[in-house]
Task: inverse folding
């Protein structure tokens, strides 16, 4: 189309990066100017992201198949298309968004300006570095969601660690060094294993892909590779574990969550907001983008285990949140519980669950992000987050109380606000997972849903406990009282209302009328689920036509280094229907799937 | 016309000399010069490899590295000067802070 | 107007009022905040009456199995199977809307007077109060208008939220804050079951729309056309009933309701007596087809209802706080309604719901009027003889009290008798006798309260100089509701039947006819109580006699021989203490549920800190130990030592490459 629609994603990603660089060029800028610049750049990024979504909708409306990602931008980065015969590496700078990533891009671009705006009074030292790091972080996060090349994805994925490491390590609380180190090493350890998986996939593509002997990381080619059944169940299993290591720690899934409360407590407000709202979603997004479509066999095989961990996480996070005395830690543990829902919905492999899961990412970002902002606002006034030291703030800060209750209700899934829609869909999807309602049967079922549903009760327990301690009861303030030195008034200032009000409006809108967002997501989720996951599995597991996945893979890969004479067929339009008993499906699915013919 | 093998032998000798010098001498300037000698050994090797393959890529890379090495030499010497100013000696043994 | 337009505006008007009050109340409206909500609720009531008119006109050709009116598509449950925001406008909805909105209007009017001090200045948070009230009316309208289970759940949770906010209205009082939290959480326990029920409905029927689900239940088939098992339908019914138990405070989830009296009295009248707590009754009646298909579920509903009725009445005998007595009486009356539902008398239960709303709201508002005059004191031991100072309050309270006691010809007499009669006629006849026993207790504790508080010599709490009647804003609603308490019952009675009770009245009137299509499918199945309803007037005489006896006993105990109650209390020692301490249910919850859960939380937190982080520490310790070991002999800081190491490494690699090439 136009130049803009060809390069909009690069603009979105690199505008904040350039903005960060400019901060250092003009060394004479004072703190006020630096803040304004950072806010302006991030707002401009938001504007571009909104434009990108408009263009996306237009482009998709023109594209009749409605099945591909849009706003593609492609450039060779390392290696190229030369066909010299030597084994080469091809890494592309390839961007594109689909219905799965676009909402997350918009969420990122929406929350970061608010987080930056929220730092105006909280950050008192090293303004230039702080805001530059925030902008860098913004660019990196947007890059993760836009990347359509696995290596590019990984680079952005890892790059997000660096700004946040410094944000926590420099502007954090008293234990900031420990928290930053733990956060960095923990997540890095996991994602190095993921990197091994990434390399393996590239290598796999080089020996049996359609591209010749080229290490490729192009997601489309890797999807094609996977749907052609090139990965054996053992390979899938190991790759899944490798991806799981990186993503589950990032999510964080029980029992890999212990870095999260520490990092949250020590991080500055904006760091917590971004961490909870977006960085955790990188993990869930990774599962959704890589594990599910590329490793369907292993996904189905391991879904019960992950479902179990998710359910444990839901309950465990909730009860652990309840006994916290630090408000921020409470909210951090609530994230563990919420992200459990998110993964549960994803691995029930039902449309309802997947939609719910993706919506959950957004809704959790909004409500938990806002909760962290509010906790930060309280902290700036009273320099404490201990629930035993503050109380009855509804009297002193009625506007804050209003917002806190709104986001609490959103967080505990009150119908009419956003949290409910996603929580309901996740639980519904899990509940009907084993049945044929709405889509093919999935691996989970009612026995995952029932304990998970207790999360709606436990969530109310700890959140209302917090509300009661902080807002209700007689007024209680720490001995040193309210600190207005940063230009704060007792109740929220106009700036703070301006930060929270848009989030609250989004919460309300997504709760009352989520249809537009759902319609953006669904075609891509449905494609991912029905055409990639189920048909790949059905095709690969069909013993009569191909002798099972393992033997077919053997036929492909027993000649290492030898270029395939005929590339695997990537045609998804004519899937081979299962004719026999699928071998690796759980028994309760097998009959349902067999009856589907 | 030099043969690639001889060029590689010369490269190996240069590298070996440099490495030995680096390990045995204490004067930082000398040590630094020794690293440069190791560099040159590698460069000669590159050129020899390029000759062996019959293309110019080795020489291109050699010149490229040479430029970088020049920059790096300036930087390195500057560091040595700074270190001399700190301690008043060029003995490498006087800097033992790099303990784990 | 079209049904759809009406159905949209009925909930929306109070919401708009509430939102405006919330936005501009604090700054501009201040103590005029009530007007917007008052107008919103008033207009809503007018619209509800229009809707009623419309539905009655269409009664002949109304097709209840038709799908609900879809407003818009809300949530996609996968592959385009949208769960809609849809409304259902049938007679049951009309009855509920009328009940809810008329009581709401009265309560809003009353609150204008109540939420002020004696000088007419608005209380702190005046605008907040009315905004919450508007939110509640919106939620309740959504609840009764909902056309599918999901929207029902929305209304269900939103009334819970309004209740939470209003109970905690005096949030600075720790007891109010605790009560609000307790109410929300106990409701959530019920909602846990309710939610599971909704999921199970979707799992079974593949839809959440009332009409579709009910028609499938009637046909006895699930979504795939297979025969529906009784076990499944019983599970669904019981899970739904869990929600009803929470919201309508039935045993054992009743604990929140007495505590909820911490809220302002108009709130207790509206939410915790007349409307919200009856949502459970409404829901069971709405799902009558599901419940009727499961005898086990019906049995449980009826038994729990009867048990709650008796249980709460016994507690009410011993309490001294006027509002708490009324709260337990509400529990007891809700028990009656569930008793009615359980024996299949759905229309009678709704009839009782409808009459109960008026007289109970009147009683609560009367108690509020007393509280207002007594400067917040509500313990009946602290005052007496208010009859002279507060005549309007007294007379309206007396009328509503008579209605509650089941005094003949007043509203509850008709509705309560119908329920007891249906119970006696059915297979669970013994529930009917529990109902009769409870009726006796009801009359006794109601008049205990009236005689102690209003009769005798005038005695006032400290700081109150004289009992004064409340202002016009408060007395007018009292009178309106008292009229309702007397005459509301007559819509369910056929007049001028010479063979009837007192040669004039016959139970089962226009009200039941109007509701008949809703319950047609369900009532036919378990109990055919209608046939026997006529011509058995002995029960009416009996219950009238019981009411009179209860009132007489109360008079005898508390006016004639005031020493008797004390003597009985002393004589029955432990039983009295059991009643007075509400059967120690709260303590039981604390011991059996709250503390273990809290311990479990501590345990989890401990696992985090020691077990998981301990494992991490060990894992991280391995490289650390190796590094420490190496440091001793290698890491000496000598640059050339490092270089030598590198060179050796390089040589090893070269050697390896060369030998393996």
Result:
């Amino acid at each position: 189309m136009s130049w803009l629609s060809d390069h909009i994603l690069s603009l979105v990603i690199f505008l904040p990066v350039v903005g960060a660089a400019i901060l250092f060029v003009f060394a004479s800028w004072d703190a006020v100017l630096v803040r304004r610049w950072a806010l302006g750049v991030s707002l401009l990024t938001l504007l571009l992201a909104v434009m990108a979504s408009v263009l996306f909708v237009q482009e998709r409306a023109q594209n009749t198949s409605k099945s591909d990602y849009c706003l593609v931008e492609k450039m060779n980065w390392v290696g190229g298309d030369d066909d010299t015969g030597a084994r080469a590496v091809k890494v592309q700078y390839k961007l594109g968004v689909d219905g799965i990533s676009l909402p997350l891009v918009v969420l990122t671009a929406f929350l970061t300006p608010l987080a930056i705006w929220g730092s105006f009074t909280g950050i008192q030292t090293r303004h230039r570095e702080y805001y530059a790091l925030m902008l860098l972080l913004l660019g990196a996060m947007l890059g993760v969601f836009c990347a359509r090349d696995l290596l590019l994805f990984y680079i952005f994925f890892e790059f997000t660690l660096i700004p946040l490491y410094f944000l926590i390590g420099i502007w954090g609380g008293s234990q900031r060094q420990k928290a930053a180190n733990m956060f960095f090493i923990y997540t890095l350890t996991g994602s190095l294993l993921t990197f091994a998986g990434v390399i393996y996939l590239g290598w796999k593509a080089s020996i049996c892909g359609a591209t010749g002997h080229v290490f490729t990381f192009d997601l489309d080619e890797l999807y094609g590779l996977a749907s052609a059944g090139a990965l054996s169940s053992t390979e899938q299993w190991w790759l899944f574990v490798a991806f799981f290591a990186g993503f589950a720690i990032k999510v964080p899934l029980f029992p890999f969550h212990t870095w999260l409360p520490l990092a949250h407590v020590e991080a500055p407000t904006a760091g917590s907001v971004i961490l909870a709202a977006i960085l955790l979603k990188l993990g869930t997004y990774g599962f959704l983008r890589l594990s599910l479509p590329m490793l369907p066999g292993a996904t189905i095989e391991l879904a019960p285990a992950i479902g179990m961990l998710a359910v444990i996480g839901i309950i465990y996070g909730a009860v652990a949140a309840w006994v916290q005395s630090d408000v921020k830690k409470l909210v951090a543990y609530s994230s563990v519980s919420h992200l459990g829902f998110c993964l549960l919905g994803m691995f029930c492999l039902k449309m309802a669950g997947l939609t719910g899961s993706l919506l959950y990412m957004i809704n959790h970002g909004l409500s938990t992000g806002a909760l962290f902002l509010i906790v930060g606002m309280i902290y700036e006034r009273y320099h404490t987050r201990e629930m035993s030291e503050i109380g009855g703030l509804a009297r002193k800060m009625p506007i804050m109380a209003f917002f806190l209750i709104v986001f609490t209700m959103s967080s505990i899934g009150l119908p009419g606000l956003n949290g409910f829609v996603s929580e309901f869909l996740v639980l519904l999807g899990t509940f009907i997972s084993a049945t044929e309602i709405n889509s093919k049967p999935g691996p989970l079922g009612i026995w995952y849903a029932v304990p998970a549903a207790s999360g709606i009760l436990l969530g109310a327990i700890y959140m209302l406990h917090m509300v009661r301690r902080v807002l209700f009861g007689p007024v209680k303030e720490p001995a040193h009282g309210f600190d207005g030195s940063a230009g704060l008034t007792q109740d929220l200032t106009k700036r703070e209302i301006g930060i929270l009000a848009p989030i609250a409006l989004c919460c309300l809108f997504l709760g009352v009328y989520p249809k537009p967002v759902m319609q953006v997501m669904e075609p891509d989720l449905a494609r991912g689920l029905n055409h990639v996951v189920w048909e790949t599995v059905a095709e690969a597991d069909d013993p009569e036509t191909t002798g099972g996945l393992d033997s077919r893979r053997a036929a492909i890969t027993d000649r290492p280094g030898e270029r395939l004479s005929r590339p695997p067929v990537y045609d998804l339009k004519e899937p081979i229907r299962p004719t026999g008993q699928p071998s690796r499906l759980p028994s309760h699915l097998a009959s349902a799937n067999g009856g589907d013919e | 016309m030099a043969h690639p093998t001889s060029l590689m032998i010369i490269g190996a000798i240069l590298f070996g000399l440099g490495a030995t010098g680096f390990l045995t001498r204490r004067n930082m300037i000398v040590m630094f010069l020794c690293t440069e000698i190791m560099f040159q050994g590698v460069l000669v090797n590159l050129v020899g490899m390029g000759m062996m393959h019959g293309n110019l890529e080795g020489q291109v890379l050699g010149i490229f590295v040479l430029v970088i090495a020049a920059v790096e030499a300036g930087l390195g010497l500057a560091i040595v000067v700074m270190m001399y100013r700190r301690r008043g000696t060029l003995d490498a043994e006087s800097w033992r802070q790099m303990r784990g | 107007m079209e049904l759809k337009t009406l159905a949209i505006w009925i909930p929306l008007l109070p919401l708009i009022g509430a939102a405006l009050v919330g936005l501009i109340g604090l700054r501009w409206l201040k103590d005029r905040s009530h007007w917007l909500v008052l107008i919103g609720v008033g207009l809503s009531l007018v619209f509800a009456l229009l809707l009623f008119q419309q539905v009655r006109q269409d009664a002949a050709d109304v097709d209840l199995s038709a799908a609900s009116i879809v407003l818009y598509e809300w949530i996609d449950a996968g592959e385009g199977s949208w769960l809609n925001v849809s409304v259902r406008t049938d007679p049951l909805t009309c009855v509920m809307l009328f009940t809810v909105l008329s009581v709401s209007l009265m309560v809003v009017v009353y609150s204008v007077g109540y939420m002020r001090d004696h000088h007419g200045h608005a209380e702190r948070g005046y605008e907040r109060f009315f905004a919450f009230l508007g939110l509640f009316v919106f939620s309740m309208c959504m609840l009764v208008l909902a056309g599918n289970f999901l929207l029902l759940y929305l209304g269900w949770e939103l009334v819970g939220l309004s209740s939470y906010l209003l109970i905690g209205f005096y949030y600075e009082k720790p007891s109010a804050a605790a009560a609000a939290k307790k109410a929300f959480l106990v409701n959530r326990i019920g909602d846990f079951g309710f939610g599971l029920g909704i999921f199970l409905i979707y799992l079974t029927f593949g839809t959440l729309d009332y009409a579709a689900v009910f028609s499938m239940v009637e046909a006895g088939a699930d979504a795939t056309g297979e025969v529906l098992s009784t076990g499944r339908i019983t599970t669904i019914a019981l899970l739904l009933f869990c929600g009803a138990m929470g919201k309508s405070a039935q045993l054992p989830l009743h604990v929140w309701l007495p505590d909820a009296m911490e809220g302002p009295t108009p709130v207790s009248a509206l939410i915790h007596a007349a409307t919200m707590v009856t949502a459970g009754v409404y829901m069971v009646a709405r799902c009558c087809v599901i419940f009727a298909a499961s005898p086990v579920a019906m049995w449980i509903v009826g038994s729990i209802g009867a048990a709650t009725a008796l249980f709460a009445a016994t507690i009410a005998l011993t309490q001294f706080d006027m509002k708490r007595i009324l709260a337990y009486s509400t529990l007891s009356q809700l028990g009656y309604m569930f008793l009615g539902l359980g024996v299949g008398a759905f229309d009678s239960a709704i009839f009782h719901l409808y009459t109960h709303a008026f007289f109970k709201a009147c009683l609560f508002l009367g108690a509020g009027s007393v509280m207002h005059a007594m400067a917040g004191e509500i313990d009946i031991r602290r005052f007496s003889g208010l009859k002279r100072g507060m005549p309007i309050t007294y007379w309206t309270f007396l009328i509503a009290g008579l209605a509650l006691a089941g005094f003949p010809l007043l509203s509850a007499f008709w509705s309560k008798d119908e329920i007891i009669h249906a119970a006696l006629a059915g297979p669970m006849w013994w529930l009917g006798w529990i109902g009769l026993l409870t009726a006796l207790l009801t009359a006794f504790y109601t008049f205990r309260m009236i005689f102690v508080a209003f009769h005798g010599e005038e005695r006032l709490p400290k700081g109150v100089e004289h009992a004064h009647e409340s202002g016009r804003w408060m007395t007018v609603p009292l009178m309106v509701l008292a009229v309702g308490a007397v005459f509301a019952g007559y819509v369910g009675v056929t007049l001028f039947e010479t063979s009837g009770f007192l040669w004039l009245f016959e139970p089962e009137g226009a009200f039941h006819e109007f509701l008949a299509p809703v319950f047609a499918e369900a009532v036919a199945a378990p109990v055919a109580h209608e046939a026997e309803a006529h011509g058995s007037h002995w029960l009416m005489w009996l219950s009238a006699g019981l009411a009179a006896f209860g009132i007489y006993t109360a008079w005898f105990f508390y006016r004639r021989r005031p020493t008797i109650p004390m003597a009985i209390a002393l004589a029955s020692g432990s039983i009295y203490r059991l009643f007075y301490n509400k059967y120690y249910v709260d303590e039981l919850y604390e011991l059996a549920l709250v503390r273990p859960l809290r311990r479990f939380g501590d345990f989890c937190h401990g696992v985090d800190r020691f077990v998981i982080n301990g494992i991490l520490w060990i894992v991280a310790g391995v490289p650390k130990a190796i590094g420490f070991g190496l440091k001793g002999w290698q890491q000496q800081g000598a640059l050339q030592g490092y270089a030598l190491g590198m060179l050796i490494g390089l040589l090893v690699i070269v050697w390896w490459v060369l030998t393996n090439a």
